[in-house]
Amino acid sequence: MSAQKPATWAYSEDFIAESEVIEQARHRGEELGCTPVLPGTGAALRLLAAASGARAVAEVGTGAGVSGLWLLAGMPADGILTTIDVEAEHQRSARKAYLAAGVAPQRTRVITGRALDVMPRLTDGAYDMVVIDGDKGEYAAYVEQALRLLRPGGVLALDNMLWHDKVADPAARDETTRALRDLGKMLRDHDALVPCLLPVGDGLLAAVKR
Fold first, then answer.
1. Domains in the chain, please, with CATH?
2. What are φ and ψ of residue 72, in 5° steps?
3. Cβ(68)–Cβ(81) under 8 Å?
4. What does the DSSP assignment read for 12-80?
5. For residues 156 and 143, what is the distance between their CA atoms, to the nearest angstrom?
6. Which of 69, 199, 202, 208 has the fewest Cβ atoms within 10 angstroms?
7. In this predicted model, what pLDDT tens digit does every residue of 89-118 receive, in sequence order?
């Protein structure tokens, strides 16, 4: 199997253009030192939200609001995004992005705190989609909570699952790479999931809960 050509990857990443509001949120995120999802990942998240008709979405890792804007664009008009981040400054930037995009305030629940403290307080089976883009060392624990939160037929999505091209390299054995590689294999083989690893952005692993 031939390697994906860089030109093809770049073309697909730019295939769906970011809105001006998302571009502005991206710039703010970069200034804050948080890494926003790439356009290909954002477009995929929007697609998954739209395809699943996701009215209740939980997100780990608000950042500057880039991924949230993509998700909200794919959700129905009455959909609610619950987004969690430990950095209040990031969330202030995200709120600014939501406001600039014309998102009604009641459509977002922005919760400041450590995700593993917040997620256990959310309702079992109440979410159509859970998006994970937080502390890589806690991904496995996030997944455990996410599977509890998702309804049957709900969508799980994890960003950075190719981790700067290192997950696919057997020689890459650092702790984060190994953890993400092992988690990906666990999700691939999980009896309760229908998974797919998408080579968009930094790798988006998506799965439907049976």
1. 6-209 (3.40.50.150)
2. -60, -35
3. yes
4. HHTSSPPPHHHHHHHHHHHHHT--PPPHHHHHHHHHHHHHTT-SEEEEE--TTSHHHHHHHHHS-TT-E
5. 8
6. 199
7. 999 999 999 999 999 999 999 999 999 999
